[in-house]
Amino acid sequence: GPRTSNLSIQDAIKNLKYIEGLPDLMRYCTRTVEGLLIMASTRPEDLHGAVSVTRDGLKRLQATEPKYVGLVYNDLGTGSASKTNIAALDASHQVCIPTTGAKDDLEQAILTFRWMLNAEEDGEEVTPYADLARNSIIVLNRWLPFYRLVNSPEKIRAQFVKQFGKDFDNVRVLTVNSGA
After folding, report:
1. Digit-coded pLDDT (tens) for 138-173
2. What is the pTM of this model?
3. 116-124 — which CB contacts under 8 Å span 24+ positions?
4. What is the spatial distance between Cα 144 and Cα 131, in angstroms, rounded to a whole number?
């Protein structure tokens, strides 16, 4: 069933040498009602702190995860161009962009997708993420009843297609009903 963790990606990387199996890895993950494993970018007490993850640390963690589970979502929080998120994108094979479908939240997902198609940081081009964007998954989180009334997966897909055309052809929209 669902389960939460107060540990983060930083904690998992710091303790990688002690992760010897699925129970060890699970300490760092929240499990949603759908069975998705999500590893938070920061601990709740670090939300306002300057915590970052290195590209090397993420690659080492990602090399460990497949030994134990097929897929772990690393929640990177907000701020697409933060150093932590840049490192994560550089180490990623696929990206999930979450949204509830509510207007402001959907606009943030659209901005994230647009940024990945045209990645720049401080006016300079960074490693391009257009391929990650074009093969991403939009995760529509319906964890509150209100969100179930806002934008269907079809409407969300139509809004992305309208703005991005063929760049959105391979993107999937996945619906989950979890508060995790």
Report:
1. 888 776 666 666 678 888 888 899 989 898 888 888
2. 0.66
3. 116/80, 116/89, 117/164, 117/167, 121/81, 121/86
4. 32
* Cα–Cα distance, 170 to 176 (Å, whole number): 19
Residue with tokens 């990623």: 92
Q: How many angstroms separate the Cα of 72 from the Cα of each of 102, 117, 121, 155? A: 25, 24, 27, 27
Concatenated DSSP letters of 110-161 = HHHHHHHHT-EETTEE-S--HHHHHT-EEEEE--SGGGGGS--HHHHHHHHH
Whole-number Cα distances in Å, 97 to 22, 23, 89: 25, 27, 12
In single-letter form, the type of residue at position 40 comes to A
Residue with tokens 């207007």: 103
